[in-house]
Amino acid sequence: MKRWMISILLLSLVGCTTAHYRVHDKEELRYALEDPDNLAGKELVIRIASSISDIGRPFVYDGSSDLRLTGAPAELTSHGRNHLLRSDSKAKITLENLTFSGGRTGVGSERGGAVYHLGDLVINDCKFLDNAAEFGGAVYAGGRVDIQRSRFEHNQARWRGGAVYSEDKITTTDSIYQDNSEPVLYVRDKGVK
Fold first, then answer.
1. In angstroms, rounded to a whole number, what is the distance separating the alpha carbons of residues 48 and 135?
2. Of 79, 73, 59, 54, which Cα lies nearest the Cα of 151?
3. HEC string of the chain?
4. How many CB atoms lie within 10 A of CB 76?
């Protein structure tokens, strides 16, 4: 906890315009997602310094600032009990250099085995492994999804979007989709580029 607070202090002293938290475990990540020090301006930046296993309940973000989660790299693992990240916010979320595995949702209209987000989502250099949901085995987004240099393997959706389900649009570049249920990418009303 002490090294984490020092990281916040140092970043504040050098005049960063966005909030930066460096976290090492699930309690620190939950704390940082709440941004209790009100350090976020336009974007809240959280660096996950080590892998977090058996998260228990989902990590929740409901802030109004955009969120950037970046790994060192790091893996977030649920062991099949729930989402890994849930956000009812319309703020843009960017995920970088992270692995999401073992995310599951319950029976019914549950969406996004690993990530459930109502806004736009950017995924860079991430892996989504062995996640499952009714819709969007790995990811559900209410907005646009932009995927670059990422890998989706063994994700399952009971109905649509084995890897990703979007209410708006999906753009994917230099990414790998392997052994996911069909259709792998699903856009409710538009298309995939």
1. 27
2. 73
3. CHHHHHHHHHHHHCCCCCEEEEECCHHHHHHHHCCCCCCCCCEEEEEECCCECCCCCCEECCCCCEEEEEEEEEEEECCCCCCCEEECCCCCEEEEEEEEECCECCCCCCECCCEEECCCEEEECCEEECCEEEECCCEEECCCEEEECCEEECCEEEEECCCEEECCCEEEECCEEECCCCCCEEECCCCEC
4. 25
Residue 19 corresponds to which tokens in the numbers above?
A: 């909030």
- For residue 11, pLDDT beyond 70: no
Average pLDDT for 70-99: 93
Q: What predicted TM-score, i.e. pTM, was given to this entire model?
A: 0.87
Q: Measuring CA to CA, how many Å separate 95 from each of 35, 46, 128, 130?
A: 17, 10, 11, 18
Which residue(s) pair with 72 in the sheet?
Answer: none
Q: Residue 87 corresponds to which amino acid?
A: S
Pairing label, strands 156-160, 115-117: unpaired
- What distance in Å separates the CA atoms of residue 70 and residue 116, rounded to the nearest whole number? 17
Per cent of the chain over pLDDT 70 is 86
Tokens of 160: 């649509």
- How many residues are there in the chain? 193
Q: What angle do CA 63, 69, 70 make, to 5 degrees?
A: 165
